[in-house]
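step: validate -> pass
step: tokenize input -> pass
step: predict -> running
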Amino acid sequence: MRLADLVALDPDALRCPADAYADFRERGVHYAPEVDAYVVARHDDVVSVLRDGRRFSSANTVGNPPARPEDDGKGLRPLLLLSDDPLHARRRSIVNRVFTPSRVAAWEPRVREVCARYLAALPGRDDVDLVRDLAAPLPIRVISMLLGVPQQDVDSFRAWSEEITAGLGGHGGDREKRERVQQEFAAYISGQLDTRAALADPGSDVLGLVSQAERAGELVRHECVRFVIELIIAGNITTTHHLSSSMALLARDPELQSRLRAEPDLIPRFVEESLRLESPIQGFYRLATEDSVVGGVDIPAGSRLLVFYASANRDPDAWAECPHLKLDRSNGSAHLAFGRGAHACLGSSLARLEGRVVVEMLLDAVAEVELLVTPEQTPYLPSFVNHGPTSLPARLRFREPATVAGER
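step: predict -> pass
step: emit ->
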């Protein structure tokens, strides 16, 4: 399997890119004309790039060229994702307090309530799809609560998020539709910010904190809009992919289901292994700001690097028995699914919480999870950046009587 297969969006390559990653690691850092970038795939090389934001800029993280002074600054380019320190750190500090592990932990009862609601709708149905009915709707509802945007509009947020990210990693979509959706999303969020700006106290949720930053002159309006939309998208799209992958791993391993039911304390370890093996973001780009050396290879200034987190997460030099899911790893949470360095995922605690709660509650509610498609039949996102199944038709045998508990 080659990089060309991934870039061409070959379904088998996207479903399981492990062979391609093994080839990348064997070759070491190398220039790949298919992506006009140097491929970085070994664990230590990936970490060295991610930790060095001075020499390797995030200005082209999603693959697009960095913004130029003459570009339209009011587009919906991500605000945090494409900025470097110290600007990145200042922007991130505006909302950091909402995503601390302790603040996120306090949201667990609400996450359980949301999960219980979706699980309660499944008994008796013969058309269950674990992506459509659980993995997709739950994260957008949770992140909407955290951000403080109206719950009645979450279906629109999800649809808008999917359309906006449709060009990332090779899957095209309708460009005109995407531009129209961006305008609709931006107008909606701007309206929400208008409402907060009229209040004496805009609040302490994300929308309130961003509104306060605008009031203090830290951000201008179009930056506020970009910031909120970026957090909405990041807080639901990648978590959906993580939840979907976790449920696929579970459903295809009845022994694993039984073990986790018997030993629920192992569920957080399973979540980490799922993140490692099926990283929802397979990799991002960086831009060399000066002549550099990575993995013994000269990287000229101005070059792009495609940094594969998912390959690093399967590097046998970093992970014992790395092709296998192991629940007894001493370094299980040290994977790179959330990146590393200054741009380590702001919402990692929330994603871990949602992953744990969904697995716990699904295993509590059902006696058996069986997928109705084989691994080879399972559709995956047409992207070499975003990774996850898009549909998981399943047969669920609920415990009798079929009850779903909220809080434990």
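step: describe -> The first helix runs from residue 3 to 7.
step: cleanup -> pass
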